[in-house]
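Lab notebook, bench 4. The sequencing result for the construct came back, and we need a structural model before the next group meeting so we can plan mutations. Quick request posted to the team channel:

Model the 3D structure of this chain.
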Amino acid sequence: MNEEIIDKTSKYFKERGIILPKISELQDPHSINEDIKFKLKSLDKDVIDPKNLFRVHWFNNKDHSNFSKVPEHIVLPNSFTGVEAKIIVNIGRLFPLITAHKVLAAYGCLLPRILNGTFDYEKHKAIWPSTGNYCRGGVAISRILGLKSVAILPEGMSKERFNWLEKWVEDKNDIIKTAGTESNVKEIYDACNELKKNSNNDIINQFDEYYNYAIHRAVTGPSFEKSFLEVKGNSNLKARFYVSASGSSGTLAAGDYLKDNLDIKIAVVEALECPTLLYNGYGEHNIQGIGDKHVPLIHNVMNTDFVVGVSDQATNNLNLLFNTDVGHSYLNKKHSFEIDFIKRLPEFGFSTIANILASIKIAKYMKLGKNDAIITVATDGADLYLSELNKAKDEFKGIYDEVSCGEIFGQFLKGISTDNTVELNQKDKERIFNLGYYTWVEQQGISLNDFEKRRDQNFWNKHYQYMLSLDDRITEFNCI
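Done. Here's the predicted structure in token form:
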């Protein structure tokens, strides 16, 4: 704890009108001060204003005029999924500033540094390595707090990500493009290691930041529990699974909370074109936002129950079906899906589509019935991938029509099988856990002891409890 920096930063924030939200307020935004809630009603969700920190949670309503009773979610029609189980999709595009949930992870990773005085705003620069959304969240939070920041991401990510960054960074040189696409995380780490040579650069790496794990277990987990309980009502519905793509494994941490409180099993999703967890495999893929080719340090592998592979051919093509007029017309006329439901399909980004497909695979594999529910997440929406539509259309050689839509629907949605679904036994978990050794101990220099202690669930519980303990310190910081 550096009291001098803490005092200095608190005064700096006060001059800028910054109040840090408490963890309990992000868990339950209805507890936020009434004056702040009133001011949010007339505030644009995407402007650089410190009050927008109080929108960094799952309870924003559709027009951002207020907070919802429970997180916005969609229960997918059984006629759409082809399974009896209810699949509940929590909506992440309603987060402020970046229309994606990674802004929560960025806040959670930066918060302890501010409270402990390890980040000096006059001296340090926040470095945000990512495959897209996390670095945008980091830049957004940094701008609101008046901190210097740098975004690092692969050059092959969607055009929309770079367009956003170019508008938000103060200097174009604060965007560092590394080689490759979604799977090229190693190249991001190499860039970070180079920047780390300057002690003023604080590398806030979502893949090894336990604060990323902790904020999602503390905030995302309880939020998803509330949306499930709303769907359940007085029925006999039971939550059976939490399904989430790997990525940094931060969002997966919500599963640890849900396992403790709803007794669910956790299924992690990855791209079949890069089946690292499934088969120790490698490769390139286009399910943007879910990383790959390594096991993140913050993945609680020993608490994971299933791994499910989904092809990017499925997500590419369904993204086309869900976001074109001809696709919408096909779904309405040929399958009688309601217009109101069809209009919500653009709320699903690439990784969301992967999560939905994996949820269907799990429901089929486990033969789940009408009293079973699967909880999953839409981390962002299709607005971040509109530039990808023409690439997908090119696969149809200029003829993309209702026949094409029928082929996509039949092959990638109705034709879902249970292949590449692995129910993990103890040896499987140890295999995946051990695979992380080569990234974290051999390449990145983590001590063997620090690597091994992640086998113990008490290790993860301590990080979760630490995040929950920050409320009093946040209150004290805000009052200095």
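The chain has a mean pLDDT of 96.
Will bring this to the meeting.
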